[in-house]
Amino acid sequence: MTDNTRSHRSLYRSLLTGLAFSTAIGLSAAHADAITVYTSYEEDEIAAFLARAKQDMPDLDVNVLRLSTGDLHARILAEASNPQHDVIWGWAVTSLIDPRIGELVEAYTPAGIDRVAEQFRDKDGKWFATTGYMAAFCVNNEVLAAKNLPMPTSWADLLKPEYKGEVVMPNPASSGTGYLMIASIIQMMGEEKGWQYLKDLDANIAQYIKSGSRPCNAASEGEFAIGASFALRAIKNVDEGYPITMVIPAEGAGNELEANALMASSRNKDAAKRFLDWTISDSAVNEYYNWKEIVTVKGGTMPEKFRKAGLPEDIASVMWNMDFAWSAENRGPVLERWQRELER
Amino acid sequence: MTLALSHVTKRFGNTVALDDISLTIERGEFICFLGPSGCGKTTLLRIIAGLELAEEGTVTLEDRDLSEVPARHRNFGVVFQSYSLFPNMTAARNVGYGLECRGRPRAEIEARAAEMLRIVALSDHAHKLPSQLSGGQQQRVALARALAPDPEVLLLDEPLSALDAKVRESLRLEIRDLQRRLGITTIMVTHDQEEALTMADRIVVMDTGRIAQIGTARELYDRPASRFVAEFIGRMNVLPVAGGRLAGLPLAVPQGATLIGIRPEDVRLHAGEGPPGRAILPARLTNTIYLGNLAHLVLSVEGIEHEIVAEVPGHACKAIADAPQIGLELPAETIKVLA
Amino acid sequence: MTALTADRAAPAVRRSRRNRLAAMLPAVVVGLPLILFVLFPLAHILGRSFSTPDGFGLANYAAMLGNERFLRITWNSFAVTLVSAAVAIVMAYAFAYAVQRSTMPLRNLFRMIAVLPLFAPSLVQAQGLVLLFGRNGLINRSFGLGIDLYGYWGIVIASVLYVFPYAFLILSAALAVADARIYESAEMLGASKWRAFRTVTLPATRYGLAAAIFVCFTLVITDFGNPMVIGGDYTVLASEVYNQVIGQANFEMGTVIGMVLLIPAAIAAMVEKRVSAKQYALISEHSRPLVPQKDRLRDLALLAVAVLISAAILSIVLVVVFASFVHLWPYRMTFSLRHYAFDVQNGIQPLWNSIYVSVMAAGIGVVAVTAAAYVIEKFPSPAARGLYFLSILPAAVPGMVLGLGYILAFNSPSNPVYAIYGTLVIIAIANVYYYHAHGFLISGTSIKQISGRFDEASATLGGSRRQTFAKVTLPLLFPTLVGIAVFFFMRSMVTLSAVIFLITPNTQVAAVSVLYLQDRGATNQAAAFSVCIIATIMAVLLAVRLLLNAMGHRNVSLIR
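^ Those are the sequences you sent over. The predicted structure of the assembly is below.
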């Protein structure tokens, strides 16, 4: 008889202790040398960079929240009264230029900043860019063949009626890639023609996707023929073995710089500064070269797979010369108009 | 132990469940609360047990006021209609539960449980769970459990009503026997008059929250104080009278009586007109209910609205039924004045 | 005499007043966390929805109502919800009928298949559908059909499959009880089978039906995982809340849409509550359970239905499992474990977080709902009635709305709860209170069954409240408590909605990882994460079942 009861009793006890114990652990989550970093780097990039950071600074715990560029913008503004993070890392310069963000960050000159050319950093020292990315199309060869479609080479090509329902691109309101695309289009074609182009393109767009990398992934899996995305995603997917071709639009690829900054509100500035110093260290830069098509610090070499996917050695030759100040300044009104006229 | 209730009153919303009940129960007595459902007998038992609070009045045991003492400190044993054995405990642990709650040493608890189970003849079933016992066995465990802590009073709430007729009958005797042996003051609630008549020393007949009559089985049967008691215990022909007369026939009752009763077995029937000089009414047989050794004859008498039932031996039935004329006699000594 | 009566009455009256105050106390104590974690966040949502740059006003609502896109999204939401709920109900009814009222073979297997989706993250349906019916999914690739599922129909199909198991559980319970005598009399009166179904079965299950309809309605209208994955550009209210809050940090608009979601959900919950309260009166003590008779034609038809639906459910789950094990979907379909390496930030950590959160939610949840149910049963008072209302209120609150309320209410250092904000504890708490109503009702039913009888028996034997609880109530409740713990564990493992706004970099949970991975197109890794969740839940269920069996508690229903 009592066996049954006894086992009941011990079970309750272990249940209760378990509960108390688990609550205690949950409460002590934060500890000494840890910083929180907000970034828009891709998941796999983050994993690689952080692995390197851990090697170089084993005593520093880096907690990362990854959100797409637009989402992160919104999040940082929303938390402005009580920021949760210490460092902004690898985030679109266009967004960082926003004066409301400028109020939240503190000027900091990391050790060895001279390695970064002046054009890639803020004159007031509030941010410095280490990497960047540029637009590219991922075109699925199988789908093209199956539907007997020609290979597009430019933005202009995407207007061809045979591509109707076969093109996906990022939603510029949430994706930095999406915004650099429409910003570059408006910059290169001019206000009026640029918007007309976007409206014409809309007829062929199957979906505006919230993330900048998913259009390429969707095209890679053959869900759509053409995914407007960014070069690195295309390179990685070619390397993975997906039957796709990377196409850099002939008009010139819109691009974006990814910059780092220190939050004025950081409660752990020493650790945050250590991390920022690390972001331009040799170790970090070498890792950047493995992942990024644009690295602002000279030194590393372009990996073989970049070349194989069709990225030219001199990428400056295919890049549109972006006016970042314009992009930053007009971000609000452009997105508002886009959402008004084109968002579904 | 004298258990006394005085002026106990209980309301549920607007309905009065118990209306000014006063009652004294002597030590070692077996009392039954008898009445139809809704008469308040169970509520009264629950107030005695401390499971319910009376709005007014007191419950005292040997001059100790229990009104504010919660059930668990009263030390009254209670057996419920639905057994209410703890399904997670064996029979033995159920029986020992009261002592366990009192923090008695383990050895004492086990010894007492074994002793009580022996008393109710369930020693072999000590380690079974309630679900493994029959209804009768469960109720015996419940009885042992209630008695184990040596309670001052034993309270039984319709303890037999969920059982088969056979089991019920044997358990009746067992409970009564046990009660006598232990000499424990016992109150049992029941709606079964036969149960009350066979078991109780005294019966408290209750009607809509009041005590209708208290007495031994014999007193209640022979001298019911009201129509309610008369009709509830046994069968009774209830007849209205006016000015001492029934259907013109003068009866030996007080002038002011308005209602009399007579038991069916007291009604005397005569084939033919019956012996002269006695108060006899001519009657007509309307129905015969033959029960073997007995028969119930239903008769109607001119001037009496109600039919009268008479009980006669089975063998006498035919003679009366065949008689061209029936005389119905109400012997004076058997007539009970009800109002 | 009157004076004497009054005298006697006085202490009794005093006694009961003191008791009344004492009886309020437990309800207040148990109710406080509910006020803090349900009412307070909801008040914040309400307040924020009226807050505008110029103070309080209806400007946010006016802006929404005047916005053509918002009206379209609202219409979209209802178009999806009504159609999916209707289809899901019909399917679930047929399936439950087949399982409960037919003699078709393998009924237990079908029952298990029906609840299988409950083990998977709530967007697994969309995940599986894309793999199967995407423009380059298995079906289109194999048969060249050119099916395009993105958009309305994709959401509807995913939603139907999403809510199917919930509807099945409710309807199966409703169909499980039946009084054979009624069917016999119907037959004796010459009613045809169809007529008996229409005039006996349907009416007898009408409360279960109503409950199922409202549960489906609420689940679909507040689900955003599936629409985000398979909706393409077809936006619904729930995904719009997500966009407004996460994407654009537009809390005001987020709260307004939240309120718009809250209203139909609240109405549905209230109607359901009212209707389902009547369910149990239908079966009397004398009922004789109905034993289904063999009927070849009917059984064959029902078997066909069950097989079809099971195939749909299984194919969704299996294709996700399959995709997690192939090298490069859909091109190199060779076996590979590489997606289980989880070489993304945090690696497999979100799964551990999920397990941790779910265990915590199970622990806290069991205590919270049982305390509430116990207090309501044992300490009746006006405060207890308030506690009851608070306990079932969360049934009407969409998870995202609750989560949003948590951000608004607790993300401020001046708030005492802030200490746990940003930890896994707040996520566990969000899950506890999001699922509070359901757990509470299970626990309440059980306590009601146990309590009255055994409490009085224990009291008369000298047991104190504490002794009674420890020696009688708790052991008897134990199987139910385990069931409730499993319920909280399962739901916390798979839910997105209540936690989506509460996760931080180091408190990401597995279901959210699936969403994020899927959202950026890492299909295989998302699938692998889903498989890990499914496997975890199945392992836990199996372990609990074995443990219960070892303790002698069979027939405990673990899937609620």
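The longest strand of chain A covers residues 128-140. Chain A has two domains: 34-132+256-301, 134-254+316-341.

Shout if you want it in another format.
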